[in-house]
Amino acid sequence: MNTTIKQAKQHLNEEVTIGAWLTNKRSSGKIAFLQLRDGTGFMQGVVVKNNVSEEVFQLAKDITQETSLYVTGEITEDYRSDLGYEMQVKSIEVIAEAHDYPITPKDHGTEFLMDHRHLWLRSKKQHAVMKIRNEIIRATYEFFNDNDFTKIDPPILTASAPEGTSELFHTKYFDEDAFLSQSGQLYMEAAAMAHGRVFSFGPTFRAEKSKTRRHLIEFWMIEPEMAFCNHQQSLEIQEQYVAHVVQSVLKNCKLDLKALDRDTTNLEKVTTPFPRITYDDAVEFLKEQGFDDIEWGEDFGAPHETAIANHYDLPVFITNYPTKIKPFYMQPNPDNEDTVLCADLIAPEGYGEIIGGSERINDLSLLEQRIDEHQLDAESYSYYLDLRRYGSVPHSGFGLGLERTVAWLTGVEHVRETSPFPRLLNRLYP
């Protein structure tokens, strides 16, 4: 019977065949231990000399790393294994031999591993990171589908910049200028006026010449928009969503978290509500912590965000940033016209901002004023202004960066490990 490593537990004391690759092996005089993987998991195959032919045992000793195989044997309990079972191998069929596999069990430098990213993905820890990434995506669809959101796909080629920045990838669209999207938000606002609650999930591009451990050139964003939704209601949805994702990963990725040696103590504390601190109070807090150079009106850097996050056990919202450092479309704070109704959600343990969101301006004249103040081309935003001309309503939205969230939940240090094929300032290969 053919099966997979993941499904093998359903066949205890049965003989099965599994297609797999050899990740490592060790052997003594009479037993060979084969570390096998098949994409669904990792399992040990035990080859006992007295139980197999001489040819099979010699093959088991000679197999090279990453050779592909069909292994046949009986699935038996093994309480020392994370899986709780292993295979007593009876026969081995080599599919394709691998020779001189470049990534050996020894340590390798980061640049070497990134040059061989197409192979590094096979390692146990990188496999675990991608499985957790997949679970975050699955839980995302589950949350938004269960809460009556409709998925809408915004375009990747756009004629304008949602954030109003110059950090865009430019291309020619026949005889027009176009840009790779840095956010689907403006299109999602249009979709929200048709469907009420919507979300997108897709790639975005930022031409930032940044080399920090938190930045990628190409990354994936989950961007919900909600009609008839104010800022406070949006914050509640954000924290419910993040808590749902965290709990889903804890429930469904136990072996993957263990493979990464992830201490889940802090993750297990992630329940709603999340703490909130205003930008004003955050500036005062930072000064008390010794950040004497921070002044009101400046954006926070990674050290500032980390200091604030370390004060809490949970993700923390920093709310009501100054108007001048935020995009043009954010609704003014009625209690302080110098700030806007927005929030960044800062992850614990130094992983920085994972969500940025706000209530959007719904007044046509104010939005036109903001576009003019930011020296943007009003014609490029004509469709966006139409949303305020024809049945405008209070509405809010946010964007969650997938890779930073993966980094936080997996505990990996750099976001380059959270994308299967990351695009960095100096890397477009593989």
UniProtKB/TrEMBL annotation:
Chief location: cytoplasm
Gene3D superfamilies on file: Bira Bifunctional Protein, Domain 2, Nucleic acid-binding proteins
Top-level division of the source organism's lineage: Bacteria
Pfam families in the cross-refs: tRNA-synt_2, tRNA_anti-codon
SUPFAM superfamilies linked to this entry: Class II aaRS and biotin synthetases, Nucleic acid-binding proteins
Top EC class, one word: ligase
Keyword presence, Lipoprotein: no
Compartments in which it is found: Cytoplasm
Signal peptide boundaries: none
Entry similarity comment: Belongs to the class-II aminoacyl-tRNA synthetase family.
Assembly notes: Homodimer.
Identification of the protein by name: Asparagine--tRNA ligase
Biological source species: Staphylococcus hsinchuensis
